[in-house]
Amino acid sequence: MEKYRCIPCGYIYDPAVGDPDNDIAPGTAFADLPADWTCPECGAPKDEFEAC
Amino acid sequence: MKSTEIKPGIYWVGYIDWDVRDFHGYQTSRGSTYNAYLIVDEKIALIDAVKGGYAYDLIDKISEHIDPAKIDYVVSNHTEPDHSGELQRILDIAKNAKVVATQKGKDGLEKYYEGNWDYEVVKTGDSISLGKNTMEFIATPMLHWPDSMFTYIPEQKLLFSMDAFGQHFASSGRFDDQVDICELLAEAKIYYANIIMHLGSTVARTLKAAEKLEIDMIAPSHGVIWRSMIADIISAYQDWAVCKPTNKALVLYDSMWHSTEMMAVSIAEGLGNGGVPAKLLNVSINDVTHLATEVLDCAAVIVGSPTLNNGMLPTVASFMTYIQGLQPKGKLGFAFGSHGWAGGAVPKVRTMLEDTGVEIVHENITCKYKPDAEELKVCYEAGQILAEKIKTNICLP
Ligand SMILES: [Fe+2]
Ligand SMILES: [Fe+2]
Ligand SMILES: [Zn+2]
Question: How close is the Cα of B113 to the center of ligand 2, in Å?
Fold first, then answer.
């Protein structure tokens, strides 16, 4: 599964890790994150991420 | 310098640093201030502290109004040491004070100071009543660190905006209407360009969230307090958030034996005669703080380097590295330069321009040793072509 990078702050969303702070389980693809999910570092919305 | 009352019972108690000229590499030619604020109410709150070394001054200013031991809350809007450097000294005196910060603020402060502090972690929507005044907290992550937040006092229409809207600007006047407006706006722009430029989308999002607030005073953590020019600085931030281009192109270069310089001059002439004023900026004699400020509102970034040891000059590489981090939006440009034999600088400059987000609108221009008349004509025409593109981009006739 593809990793995604937050353009404003550089945080990398790694599906293998998920986002434990926001109750996103490991194994969750970026596309399957809820629409209102935001970057855990900087609050940027999903559309400010790019595949890396 | 004494403290200044900015609203009833609310005081500026910061430090004016007239002497600082280098702020982690940023040239602060007009000095700076580290602003802390004291709210004297039924409960006492201190909003941020000052840079390490100035606790004596902060404590003196607080003591004009209350015994610092009586502080109930120390709000840390931003973890960076220019604001948190003296927190420990304040907490040594204010033994019962709680440190109010976001979760990321607490994480950062614990790493920096290893203090066993009593924290109250807050997030957007949380508030603390001090009596007549309420502190409302608005997390503003990545403006410009993950920990950052605003503290808003609705009863006073007062926003403590930490580094946002700040300026490295030492002055005896504490308010925007007590200083030279041109100097103030110049410093606000330099600050934005060098600290915030790469965070435009975050700025736009935060400005939108702040629209709901009634504000008649913005108290940042550097420079003067905004009260007469709030609309002006907000509209400037809206323009800067998208790096709005003006009719100005930059030809940035360094040269060994004037060949790349000759090319730069011809490109600038082509731009100028095409109707776009160009600035010729030799990166080896201009500091990056001011170059970044020029980049913020320019329409085009054209970069030239001769080839040295198959690469670009270190001066050009240094400038490009800085600008790459600042990620200006919506700029046009191309790469040029002279070389003796194999070349190498110009394609590397082009790659760095692309990584910076600059849209390449002309192929690389190179020449051997020294440009002849024909090669200079190519440079001149490239300037003219670019001028046409710029005028279309910014909607000039
Ligand atoms: Fe900062
Ligand atoms: Fe700061
Ligand atoms: Zn982010």
Answer: 17
Q: Are B297 and B245 in contact (CB under 8 A)?
A: yes
Q: What is the CATH number of the domain that holds B129?
A: 3.60.15.10
Distance B50 CA to ligand 2 centre (A): 9
Q: Reduced to 3 states, what is the DSSP secondary structure of residue A22?
A: helix
Using CA coordinates, name the residue in chain B closest to A10: B142
Contact predicate A35/A45, CB 8 Å: no
**B176 and B27 in a common domain:** yes
Q: What is the pLDDT of residues A39-50, one digit of tens each?
A: 998 888 999 999
B375-391 confidence digits (pLDDT tens):
999 999 999 999 999 99
- B58 is a domain residue: yes
**Is A42 within 8 Å of B139 when comparing Cβ atoms?**
no
Is the CB of A14 inside 8 Å of chain B's CB atoms? no
Q: Which residues pair with B109 in a beta bridge?
A: none
What stretches in chain A show pLDDT beneath 70?
none
Contact B142 A48 (CB under 8 A): no
Task: Give me the residue from B104, B139, B142 closest to A8, CB to CB.
Answer: B142
Question: For residue range B234-265, what is the model confidence (pLDDT) as tens digits?
Answer: 999 999 999 999 999 999 999 999 999 999 99
Range of the domain at B138: 4-241
Q: Domain check: are B286 and B147 in the same one?
A: no
pTM reported for the whole predicted model: 0.95
Instruction: Please check the confidence at residue B394 and state whether its pLDDT lies above 90.
Output: no
DSSP-assigned letter for residue A2: -
Residue B377 CA to its chain's centroid (Å): 38
Domain count of the fold of chain B: 2
pLDDT at A8: 85
Does B395 fall in a domain?
no
CB spacing of B199 vs A8 below 8 angstroms? yes
Tell me the helix, strand and coil percentages in chain A, rounded to 5.
15, 25, 60
- Considering the domain boundaries, does residue B180 fall inside one? yes
Distance from C-alpha of B17 to C-alpha of B168, rounded to nearest angstrom:
9
Q: Which among B127, B51, B118, B124 has a CA at the least distance from the CA of B89?
A: B51
- The rounded Å distance from CA B81 to ligand 1 centre is 8
| Residue in B with minimal Cα distance to A42 | B141
Average pLDDT of B339-343?
95
Active-site hit among B83, B168, B198, B222:
B222
Where is the domain boundary, B241, B275, B302?
A: B241
Please list every residue in chain A whose beta carbon sits closer than 8 Å to the beta carbon of residue B104: 41
CA distance A5 to chain B (A): 15
